[in-house]
Design brief:
The chain has 374 residues and is an alpha/beta fold. The protein is built from 15 helices and 12 strands.
């Protein structure tokens, strides 16, 4: 049987927070080509322009940069030619905006399309408004539409995606890379990992930790990541008088995060729907912490509701309930035996439902079925 030739199209060449896309590139058991360059690809996997002639490239730049056009035929034709030359069997568009933009090229090249939504592309008000009409065309053409949370499934249906095309397939975690840890000898150390953006509400984590620190003298918090709210969050810690108890590490590699987890008892993340409508999918950081057996205290938000079973494998609170989050953090800080039991329950839950091998196999099956649409 001839191997499937898959073209993965993603917006960014490399972004530290998009580990889920890199997992697709590294693990999908097919022949892969990877394109990037924004919501419509302009570079191949060797960073060469898809538009090969100087005239085509100049025409594209004028229409894109000066005229601000969205439908640029010379760019579309370059992708069509690439798909045909490389004998691509199916396109996996990472993010809905990408899928919406490349639909016409896929249709003209007669290549099936799988759209993979991740978060803001299904929820962010401005993004949805910008691509709404293109989404409708893409939904009609796409062979499959992948969502990573139950909330996202419902959002896509509201946007007009046919229910029979939507497949729920959350992200997965490498449980070997993130083995279960023994929490029995841990101190009341808390860990938060993620971009400092509104939907992750890092200020809420700091505010909750202030309540914890006032009661638990030896409690400490590590916050990993960067983002537009980084400095504001650091200033809040100083204002609340707990800066000495919080370590802001900046961006760390997966290996560094795994090493840091070995010192932790609890993982905290206060995900919320941001004022612009942006939401999580199923955060990888939650899955990694769960695989490691850390107790998770988070919110009833998006895919977190399925990744953490409230009061059985961890604790969840309503969005913006800082006091409720602090109360559960204190409970974990004061009872290491409870922490160990909940952490074990979560590690079992993650291995049963979110192992990366299973999630990749499901995506591979979606892709293989798309190639047989005719």
């Amino acid at each position: 049987m001839k191997p499937v030739n898959l073209c993965i199209i993603k917006p960014n060449k490399k972004t530290y927070s998009e580990t889920f896309i890199q997992e697709h590139i590294d693990r999908l058991p097919v022949n892969k080509k990877v394109l990037h360059g924004g919501v419509f690809p302009v570079y191949d996997d060797e960073d060469n322009y898809l538009m090969r002639s100087r005239w085509d490239l100049l025409s594209y730049l004028v229409q894109k940069k000066i005229l601000g056009k969205q439908d640029i035929k010379v760019r579309t034709n370059a992708l069509i030619n690439y798909l045909k030359e490389q004998q691509i069997d199916v396109v996996l568009a990472e993010y809905g905006m990408v899928g919406a933009m490349v639909t016409e090229a896929c249709r003209l090249a007669d290549v099936p399309l799988v759209m993979h939504f991740h978060g803001a592309d299904a929820h962010h008000y401005k993004t949805v408004a910008t691509y709404r009409s293109l989404y409708n065309k893409a939904f009609a053409y796409a062979s499959a539409i992948v969502a990573v949370s139950g909330d996202m499934v419902e959002a896509l249906k509201e946007l007009g995606a046919p229910g029979q095309k939507i497949i729920l397939n959350p992200y997965g975690v490498d449980t070997v890379k993130f083995p279960q840890l023994d929490l029995s000898g841990t101190s009341p150390n808390f860990l938060s990992v993620g971009r400092f953006v509104a939907k992750k509400s890092p200020q809420s984590v700091v505010e909750a930790f202030k309540i914890v620190a006032d009661k638990i003298a030896d409690a400490k918090l590590w916050m990993v990541g960067e983002g537009p709210l980084f400095e504001e969050t650091k200033q809040l810690a100083t204002k609340l008088g707990i800066a000495s108890k919080i370590t802001f590490t900046g961006v760390l590699s997966g290996h560094e995060i795994q090493q840091l987890m070995q010192q932790m008892r609890c993982f905290v993340q206060h995900s919320v729907t941001s004022p612009d409508g942006d939401m999580e999918g199923t955060p990888n950081t939650i899955l990694e912490a769960g695989s490691s057996g850390l107790v998770i205290v988070s919110t009833f938000h998006a895919g977190i509701k399925q990744a953490v079973i409230h009061e059985k494998t961890g604790y969840l609170v309503p969005e913006h309930d800082v006091e409720g989050m602090a109360a559960y953090m204190i409970k974990i800080a004061e009872d290491v035996q409870l922490a160990s039991q909940l952490g074990t329950n979560e590690a079992v839950h993650i291995r049963k439902n979110y192992a990366i091998k299973d999630r990749i196999n499901t995506l591979a099956d979606i892709i293989n079925k798309a190639t047989k649409r005719n």
